Amino acid sequence: MKISLIGSGNVAWHLAPALEDVGHQIVEVYSRNKKNAQKIAQKLYDAKINIDLDFDDSVAQLFILAIADDAIEEVIKQIILPENCLLVHTSGSKSLEWFDNLVKIHHDLPIKTGVFYPLMTFSKTKIIDFKNVPFCIEAIEETSKKNLVKIAQQLSKIVYSVSSEERKTLHLSAVFACNFTNHLLALSQKILEEKGLGFELLKPLIEETITKALLAKHPADVQTGPAIRGDESTIKQHLSQLKGSPDLQKVYKTMTESIQNID
Amino acid sequence: MKISLIGSGNVAWHLAPALEDVGHQIVEVYSRNKKNAQKIAQKLYDAKINIDLDFDDSVAQLFILAIADDAIEEVIKQIILPENCLLVHTSGSKSLEWFDNLVKIHHDLPIKTGVFYPLMTFSKTKIIDFKNVPFCIEAIEETSKKNLVKIAQQLSKIVYSVSSEERKTLHLSAVFACNFTNHLLALSQKILEEKGLGFELLKPLIEETITKALLAKHPADVQTGPAIRGDESTIKQHLSQLKGSPDLQKVYKTMTESIQNID
């Protein structure tokens, strides 16, 4: 299939060459920033750079929006699309209904809409094996949905048909499990670094923690540490160790209370 | 070496057979609860059960306290030990100085003291490969330290000589990286479960998050998500999704602010 990619962030960076690897052709890459579009185009077979969102003459049948959630509305307003193309976004939190309405408001030509959401964390410098990336698919029309599922199945062995409501829940839970978890590791390293200790020391523990949590029926069943034991003297000592860092103290208190209150 | 184990919790459960596997003999296992002591003794070659803390006639040279931090003081008061034995605790947060003073106050006979702290999370149902468990060793006397390092090296390839101050920092950072992280996964599962979604869906993302964080020089360098992007409309939507759960909202707000404030 001929595909245009709107965006040059982390998702676009990995998704574009992965789509070509399974036999599709990226015909255009759009970015406000020409250099960013060029960087992705260099990894592709024969993609043109687009910097004005005018795709009137495009031969693409599928347009993938891989941009920040906050930018979707503005791009929909500006983009010029060929008739009957399929336009999808890659966001975890934007409903298909909202997206489809937005397209209808700003476009007179018939345009099909859908969602092509990879439930994964992407960074430019880290290679991703798409085979293990869960894709959450949604579309207004059944044919669009079938096509999106087919493309997702070429990329990955984990493809789900997921409603907007379910996708929102998945995205929210991913913020806890992924974004917040990464931040805890960052705070943990900060605590060590301030005392001249290396993060290496904690790595076996972190790996074991995750392995254990993912093997358990419920991660709550394998909770350990002073909060769950109700070990108040250790909690008090930890808060005093953090007395120079009100932000870390607040995270410590909030997480400890939450562990003690979970039902 | 002949060793007595005081305690029947998760650490004792795994440490006792591991010590026998590398050639030591556990001669006694103490627990207030006889059944718990028996359960561990059943996994050992020829360990006696002790329920009164009287080790006057013990042939053990090393006594390992694997009990809750809050219980250490009471056990030191009650325990009767043979002269010149080495008594160690396995706690991350109790200083050797505090421990040694406590022993001196309550015991007239000369008793050597040390710390034998495995930087790991233990649950009874999950097998542990001790080869990858970092051990943090400390002792008042050089000979005791050498002996403890030797035993730790038989169990593990990661053995450190660590001061009480450093151990406290390691333990605090482990609470963030391990206990709090596990709790985030528990919350994440709770969010999914309430909407009838399976935790399986998030597992590839969680695995990738941890792999990426541990490969990065600093986990903060690979932070992703609405908080770090300053994506206020998604943050607002997430908080509204959580409006029935004040505890989850509090965790969300605290973590988001902390991500946005980290220097």
Kindly describe this structure.
2 copies of one chain form a homodimer. Chain A is α/β, with parallel strands linked by helices and 263 residues long. Chain A has 10 helices and 8 strands. Chain A has an 8-stranded mixed β-sheet, sandwiched between helices. The radius of gyration of chain A is 22 Å and the shape is elongated. Chain A starts with a strand and ends with a helix. The mean pLDDT of chain A is 96. At the A-B interface, helix 6, helix 7, helix 8, helix 9 and helix 10 of A face helix 6, helix 7, helix 8, helix 9 and helix 10 of B.
Question: What are the salient characteristics of this protein?
Answer:
homodimer; 48% helix; elongated; alpha/beta; 263 residues; 8 strands; eight-stranded mixed beta sheet
Strand order of the largest sheet of chain A: 3-2-1-4-5-6-7-8
Work out the helix count of chain A.
10
Mean pLDDT over the residues of chain A: 96
Largest sheet of chain A: 8 strands, mixed
Q: Total number of β-strand segments of chain A?
A: 8
How is the quaternary structure best described?
A: homodimer
Which regions of chain A are unreliable across 5 or more consecutive residues at pLDDT < 50? none
**How do the helices and strands follow one another from N- to C-terminus of chain A?**
EHEHEEHEHEEHEHHHHH
- How much of the sequence lies in strands of chain A comes to 5-15%
Helix/strand-derived category of chain A reads alpha/beta
What separation lies between the terminal Cα atoms of chain A?
A: 49 Å
Rg of Cα set of chain A: 22 Å
- Share in helix of chain A: 40-55%
